[in-house]
Every structure is written in structure tokens, then in C-alpha cells.
Amino acid sequence: MRALYYFLIGIVLFYIDTAIGLVIPMQIGDKDIIFVPHLTIMYILMLSVYRSFGVAMVLSVVLGLITDLYFGSFYGLYLFGYILFVVIMDFFFKTFYRDHTMLFIIIVLSTVFLEIYVAIMYSILG
């Protein structure tokens, strides 16, 4: 039953994330700036720390597929990104398990690196 709640919270965060991205575009001069908080990846990374690795992997696969189908010009981009960052978080975060400041820093940095990863893949694939 908990797994269903984790999935439903992930879906709700995905739609909130999408709504925030559509509502808050800014324009500075001729440039359009769009802030996307990536709440789904932050949620999945927190689940990989506080819940089991298996739950985080299943959610990263499902929510990565949903993200790719919803946004995707290239399918599998967010799917592999989510899986990669869950594996990295599980591998490296065993040391900082109780440190909330370090958890916050690593989750924000992982979100930034996800954006860099997506930008690099889009530039490679055209």
C-alpha cells in the first residue's frame, strides 16, 4: 500500500513540476528564462536515501518514462538520467545518511547535474 502512495506522490509532484514550469516563465530582455524545479527527481533521490534502493529504482523507471513521454523529443533521456542519479545517490550517500545539510546540497547538485546532462545530450543528439 505504501508503494502506491509513493507512486501517487510522485505523479502529483510531476504535475506540480510541469505546472510551475508553465506558469513561471520570465523574460529578461530578449531572453526567455524558464524555471523548472524538478520536484520528481528530488523526491526520487530522497526516497533512495530514506527508503529502499528498489523502491527508488522502480519509481525512477516509471517516472522517467512518464517524463520522457510527456516532454520527450528523445525517449530514454530522463529515464537513464533518473536511474543514473539514483544509483549514484545510493552509492555515495551511505556516509552522509543523517546529515540533512549534506543531503540538501547533494540533491540540489544532482538536480543541476541532471540539467547539465540533459543539455549535453540534447546538444549531442541535435
Would you write up a description of this structure?
- The chain is mainly α.
- Helices cover 75% and strands 6% of the residues.
- It has 5 helices and 2 strands, in the order H-E-E-H-H-H-H.
- The protein has helices at residues 2-23, 39-50, 53-71, 77-92, 100-125; strands spanning 25-28, 31-34.
- Strands 1-2 form a two-stranded antiparallel sheet.
- Helix 1 packs antiparallel against helix 2 and helix 2 packs antiparallel against helix 3 (53-71).
- The longest helix is centred in the C-terminal third of the chain and has 26 residues, at 100-125.
- The radius of gyration is 15 Å and the shape is globular.
- The model has no long low-confidence stretch (mean pLDDT 86).
Would you count the extended β strands for me?
A: 2
Question: pLDDT under 50 segments (min length 5)?
Answer: none
Q: What about the largest sheet?
A: 2 strands, antiparallel
Mean pLDDT: 86
User: Beta fraction of the residues?
Assistant: 5-15%
Helix-strand pattern, N to C?
HEEHHHH
**Which structural category do the helix and sheet elements fall into?**
mainly alpha
Shape: globular
